[in-house]
Amino acid sequence: MVRSEILKIKTFDRDNFTCLKCGHVGKRGIYSFYGGMHIDLIADHIIPLKMNGKDELENMQTLCINCNKIKNAKDQSDIAKRKRDENNR
Ligand SMILES: [Zn+2]
Predict the structure, then answer these.
(1) What pLDDT score was predicted for residue 88?
(2) Alpha-carbon torsion 52, 54, 60, 64, what sign?
(3) What's the gap in Å between 65 CA and the centre of ligand 1?
(4) Which residues have a Cβ under 8 Å from the Cβ of 43 and sit 6 or more positions away?
(5) Which helix (H) or strand (E) element contains residue 79?
(6) How far is the CA of 25 from the centre of ligand 1 (A)?
(7) What are the φ and ψ backbone dihedral angles of 18, each rounded to 5 degrees?
(8) Separation of alpha carbons 34 and 70, rounded Å
């Protein structure tokens, strides 16, 4: 199993397979054809790797697909804002 897959399972396990934003509970024990654990939960980097976040459990949170979409949109705007700030320096 690859490292990111182990980290993902550890994240879900720590968070009891529950989305930290909306409380959606993932369906434990349902395996996809690709060998992944869950289809409706995502192990998300709290600080995105693009913003120098660490690829470690402390920087991981369990999100459902919907909450992850919302967060990704926000991260994108945060990254864009950071770039603007850097350019204005
Ligand atoms: Zn959610």
Answers:
(1) 86
(2) positive
(3) 7
(4) 7, 8, 11, 12, 60, 61, 62
(5) helix 65-87
(6) 9
(7) -125, 135
(8) 25
Give distance in angstroms: CA of 55 to centre of ligand 1: 21
Give SS3 for 85.
helix
Contact 28, 43 (CB under 8 A): no
pLDDT in 10s for each residue of the chain, 89 residues: 577 888 998 999 999 999 999 999 987 555 555 555 546 899 999 999 989 999 999 999 999 999 999 999 998 898 899 889 988 87
Element spanning 70, H or E:
helix 65-87
pLDDT at 44: 95
How far, in Å, from the CA of 71 to the mean position of ligand 1? 10
Three-class SS state of 21? coil
CA 34 – ligand 1 centroid, Å: 23
Whole-number pLDDT of residue 73:
92
